[in-house]
Amino acid sequence: MSPDTATDATAQTTDQRPIAVVTGASSGIGAATARQLAEQGYHVVLGARRVDRVEALAAEIGGTGKQLDVTDEDSVAAFVEGLDRVNVLVNNAGGAKGLDPVSTANLDDWRWMWETNVLGSLRITKALLPALIASGDGLIVAITSIAALEAYDNGSGYTSAKHAQAVTHRTLRYELLGKPVRLTEICPGMVETDFSLVRFEGDKERADAVYQGLTPLTADDVAEVVGFVASRPPHVNLDQIVLMPRDQASARRNIKTG
Ligand code: NAP
Fold first, then answer.
1. Domain contains 253
2. Exactly one of 42, 152, 158, 211 is catalytic; which is it?
3. Within 10 A of 94 (CB to CB), how many other CB atoms are there?
4. For residue range 59-105, what is the model confidence (pLDDT) as tens digits?
5. Residue numbers of the domain that contains 121
6. Looking at the 3D structure of the chain, how many domains does it have?
7. CA 86 / ligand 1 centre spacing (Å)
């Protein structure tokens, strides 16, 4: 444990700020969400595999950075240890690998997408649900995608994983009816982050081309929506929010595709 983390962990036990857990907080939407929630007065617990990044951001925003691999049971168990008080969980860790037709689907890419987006969100949710319920006013935000609402060519590994993540989240909304936990699904369209770089295995030219010729959303655009959701009173449940750039009308249509 680094000195910064030790200080933050100590602070977490003594300060009275509500606690927000953000997975995948080392870049993109997760990092922006961690900043946003910290600005709104939360002690943010940031998790990702790149622990140096989450520790650095945690030190900047007065939170706690911890290593987290949502695909690994032991990592999740270590991450949630000591997190007895949790008010908000943002299930953000995820992403896509590849853009292949079903006929040549890469099973390793599929496994990565399902393990991260679907089972990863499930693991963290299961682990933190008792604390969220005990808080008396919990909130679970799932960052799914418009890929959780539609199919698109060559995207079946990602669209099927996002559909599965979303349906799990929507099921929990029913199962928790009567319990003091709100559930919100946020479905973004194109957001310029490292998403495409990860999808195309570091091919920057191919990743950049995705966002050329239109104005995509930024990670902050999505983070502001998470902040709005978190600031609603306990009786208001924003169930599903779809946000896209003006230049995009669906997962299959934008100003470039016509
Ligand atoms: P990003 O910049 O690539 O961020 C992805 C985050 O997920 C990183 O912090 C990464 O951290 C984390 N992550 C990946 N695998 C993980 C694992 N096994 N354990 C823990 N953390 C893991 O992309 P982003 O756009 O911000 O993506 C955030 C979420 O938004 C994803 O769920 C994505 O599917 C969704 N989304 C993105 C878009 C878009 O156009 N960008 C649109 C709709 C939905 P480490 O690598 O450090 O672990």
1. no
2. 158
3. 26
4. 999 999 999 999 999 999 999 999 999 999 999 999 999 999 999 99
5. 3-243
6. 1
7. 22
